[in-house]
């Protein structure tokens, strides 16, 4: 008998994602992703000074503030064909790298690892055994027996109190939780240690951005950091030194704890390399520009169709013409006026709410399409595009992951799965941790060469101009599309990563990545749909900017309804 | 044993505004800390932060603090008039008895505190200065009653600090607050054919 399960909301933070699945014989037959609230962010930017858009854009979401600020200034710079100084590129890149590392660490440990780790088994673990398991796979110093014992004591206290607090909503004891008590202890110890490294990544953003969250150092045309290596008041050698030591302390956690843990998880749950493939078209935009003109990038961009790596079309830079005509947003099944698709520069955001209609309109998220096709974005797209491009750093860390997970085989084909998305995010983090020091070096070398320029003032033409600002954000390709009339926005549309991934069906009835990734997903107990959450959480959903909303009353607990 | 007065003075202090400035009265937190910053000056041990809606990313800012005071819009139930200002302590938020909810960011605060308790770096004292919002609908406006309460909120933040012996005093010359999201400023945009 087919059962309908509704999970609302799905996300641990920044909620408002509702997932409906039909389950038959313990597996999902049909799925709908719906965003349950609207706020119409773009409307607030129309009519505003194009030099200030980024200040508002970075308030779209409380978590990914920086990425919207960056996409917004890049959009205006693109419209003006304004080049920014090399120092500005490197400073922006370092902010983006630190933000992404922070975001990936928080996603893995704080937002999703408890889908795989049953903390209620931790009191049964033998800390000495756990320490020796951890020592066998990693050189991370936070795995000592004493450290693990201390964590176990904390968890014992928590479990004994009978008040698990924030952990009381977990699906503890679920048959799909299969790690040993020792493995659970190791991963939860890193969950707690991650809080410290989250702080350090924040400090990097704070030093460069002047403030975090909501960096203050951006400007259309560059950054506002005053550089003078001999002045105490400006960005000087002292600050550079602090940055370097923060990055150097962050890197071991990323490579020896997070990356190792993600590989451990994949090796322990190999069946999850088969579920959750979904839409196998991938889009990644190039990022981390290496020169003022942004002609060379450290992260390659491209488009892959049907999971076929040979189909790669490289996106060399942000001036790429095809992407500008290929992207359109379809509102047939979204709560907006009209049907069919519009290119973002011509996009409208006029709400038309109809209640949840599985065959009609059912979400506040629009359905972005690339040449009419749904696309998956995110670290997985990043890694597949890098792999297909022969990108050395991607191959280095993909190879390292394969070696760790062996004898379980992980090919680029296997990566296209629920567990693959976790792995891809960890591979990307390891790559970014290498790039962090490289971009620090680029900045230091350029400053020591005597270049202290950070800003090229913008000038606005008297005619309309269009621009798109691209950024490969932690959750995937982000693009802000602007039309500027004499220095003022006349249209503003943000096509965000979660819009791509949480997309509803389009005019032709083709489902989006979340929806199609859930097909054939196992569900052992419809009352406890842990497996559905694993697949949805693998995308790192964050609905705040996708559906343009914030709940004014704040719901506390996810509801699961079985109809 | 009663600790000496000197030991009781919190050393690391954080005054935090929470809320989204794009969501009407939800921007109260940002407004209140900006007014506080402009009317009062504090010692170097007091950080004043407008954190927006950070969710779980709140934790790093609370990590190991002696005292945290948060300004935010709160849903305190029907019986309270919009614009009403109240001060709450941590247990008001964390116990299930209280109907109190911080607008939109409640889960982030509770979860952040629970995490910090586990790692042993929970703030020693946490207070919330809350206002009852009139409307948290989308838009960069603040209701007059909430705007009116924001100066009183700044004073409340200051007196909470002073009561605890923290270095905080009125500025001799107050600084004009930068309420950038409320102002509809339209400075002339540099055109291509003009000198900049």
Structural account:
The complex is a heterodimer of chains A (563) and B (196). Chain A is of the alpha+beta class. Chain A has one domain (3-562): Cytochrome-c3 Hydrogenase, chain B (Orthogonal Bundle), CATH 1.10.645.10. In chain A, 40% of the residues lie in helices and 15% in strands. Chain A is built from 17 helices and 17 strands. In chain A, the strands form six sheets. Chain A has a four-stranded antiparallel beta sheet. In chain A, strands 6-9-10 form a three-stranded antiparallel beta sheet, covered by helices on one side. The longest helix of chain A has 32 residues, at 237-268. The radius of gyration of chain A is 23 Å and the shape is globular. Chain B has 196 residues and is an alpha/beta fold. Chain B has a single domain, classed as Rossmann fold (3-Layer(aba) Sandwich). Chain B has helices at residues 5-8, 28-39, 59-62, 90-94, 106-119, 144-163; strands at 13-18, 40-42, 46-52, 67-75, 85-89, 101-102, 125-131, 168-170. In chain B, the strands form two sheets. In chain B, strands 1, 3, 4, 5, 6 and 7 form a six-stranded mixed beta sheet that branches. The radius of gyration of chain B is 18 Å and the shape is globular. The termini of chain B are far apart. Mean pLDDT of chain B is 84; it is low at 1-5 and 96-100. The chains are: A alpha+beta (563), B alpha/beta (196). At the A-B interface, helix 1, helix 4 and helix 7 of A face strand 3, strand 6 and helix 5 of B.
């Amino acid at each position: 008998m087919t059962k309908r399960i509704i999970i609302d909301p799905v996300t641990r933070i920044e909620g408002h994602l509702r997932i409906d699945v039909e389950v038959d014989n313990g597996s999902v037959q049909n799925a709908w992703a719906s965003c349950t609230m609207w706020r119409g962010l773009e409307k607030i930017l129309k009519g505003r000074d194009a030099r200030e858009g980024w200040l508002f854009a970075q308030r779209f979401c409380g978590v990914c503030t920086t990425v919207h600020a960056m996409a917004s200034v890049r959009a205006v710079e693109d419209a003006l064909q304004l080049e920014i100084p090399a120092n500005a590129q490197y400073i922006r890149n370092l902010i983006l790298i630190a933000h992404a590392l922070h975001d990936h660490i928080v996603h893995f440990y704080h937002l999703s690892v408890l889908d795989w780790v049953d903390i209620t088994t931790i009191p049964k673990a033998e800390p000495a055994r756990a320490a020796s398991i951890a020592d066998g796979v990693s050189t991370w110093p936070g795995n000592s027996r004493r450290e693990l014992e201390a964590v176990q004591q904390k968890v014992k206290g928590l479990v004994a109190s009978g008040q698990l607090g924030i952990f009381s909503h977990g699906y503890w004891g679920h048959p799909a939780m299969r790690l040993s008590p020792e493995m659970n202890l190791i991963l939860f110890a890193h969950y707690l240690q991650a809080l410290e490294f989250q702080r350090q990544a924040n400090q990097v953003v704070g030093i460069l951005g002047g403030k975090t969250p909501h960096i203050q150092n951006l400007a259309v045309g560059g950054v506002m950091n005053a550089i003078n290596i001999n002045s105490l008041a400006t960005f000087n050698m002292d600050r550079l030194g602090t940055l370097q030591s923060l990055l150097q302390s962050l890197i071991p956690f990323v490579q020896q704890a997070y990356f190792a843990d993600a590989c451990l998880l994949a090796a322990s749950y190999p069946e999850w390399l088969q579920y959750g493939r979904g839409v196998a078209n991938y889009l990644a935009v190039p990022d981390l520009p290496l020169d003022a003109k942004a002609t060379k990038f450290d992260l390659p961009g491209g488009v892959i169709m049907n999971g076929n790596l040979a189909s790669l079309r490289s996106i060399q830079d942000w001036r790429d013409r095809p992407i500008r005509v290929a992207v359109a947003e379809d509102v047939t099944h979204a709560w907006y006026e009209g049907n069919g698709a519009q290119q973002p520069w011509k996009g409208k955001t006029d709400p038309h709410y109809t209640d949840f209609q599985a065959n009609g309109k059912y979400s506040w998220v629009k359905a972005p399409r690339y040449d009419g096709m749904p696309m998956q974005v995110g670290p997985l797209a990043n890694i597949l595009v890098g792999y297909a491009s022969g990108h050395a750093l991607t191959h280095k860390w993909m190879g390292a992951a394969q070696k760790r997970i062996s004898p379980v085989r992980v090919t680029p084909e296997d990566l296209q799965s629920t567990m693959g998305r976790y792995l891809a995010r960890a591979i990307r983090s390891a790559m970014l941790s290498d790039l962090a020091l490289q971009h620090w070096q680029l900045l230091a070398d350029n400053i020591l060469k005597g270049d202290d320029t950070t800003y090229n003032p913008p000038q606005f033409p008297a005619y309309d101009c269009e621009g798109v600002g691209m950024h490969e954000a932690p959750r995937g390709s982000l693009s802000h599309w602007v039309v500027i009339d004499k220095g003022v926005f006349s249209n503003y549309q943000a096509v965000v990563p979660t819009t791509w991934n949480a997309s509803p069906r389009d005019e032709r009835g083709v489902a989006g990545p979340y929806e199609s990734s859930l097909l054939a997903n196992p569900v052992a107990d419809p009352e406890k749909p842990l497996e559905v959450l694993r697949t949805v959480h693998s995308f790192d959903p964050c609905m705040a900017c996708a559906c343009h909303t914030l709940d004014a009353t704040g719901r506390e607990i996810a509801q699961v309804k079985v109809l | 044993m009663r600790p000496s007065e000197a030991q009781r003075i919190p050393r690391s202090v954080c005054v935090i505004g929470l809320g989204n400035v794009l969501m009407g009265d939800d921007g109260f937190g940002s407004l209140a800390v900006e007014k506080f910053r402009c009317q009062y000056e504090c010692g170097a041990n007091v950080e004043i932060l407008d954190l927006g809606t950070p969710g779980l990313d709140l934790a790093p800012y609370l990590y190991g603090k002696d005292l945290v005071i948060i300004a935010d819009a709160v849903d305190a139930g029907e019986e309270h008039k919009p614009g009403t200002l109240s001060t709450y302590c941590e247990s008001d938020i964390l116990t299930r008895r209280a109907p109190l909810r911080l607008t939109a960011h409640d889960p982030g605060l509770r979860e952040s505190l629970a995490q910090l308790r586990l790692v042993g770096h929970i703030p020693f004292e946490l207070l919330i200065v809350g206002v009852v919002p009139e409307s948290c609908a989308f838009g960069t406006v603040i209701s007059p009653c909430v705007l009116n309460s924001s100066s009183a909120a700044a004073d409340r933040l200051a007196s909470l600090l002073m009561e605890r012996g923290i270095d905080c005093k009125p500025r001799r010359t107050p600084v004009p607050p930068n309420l950038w999201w409320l102002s509809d400023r339209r400075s002339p945009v540099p055109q291509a054919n003009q000198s900049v």
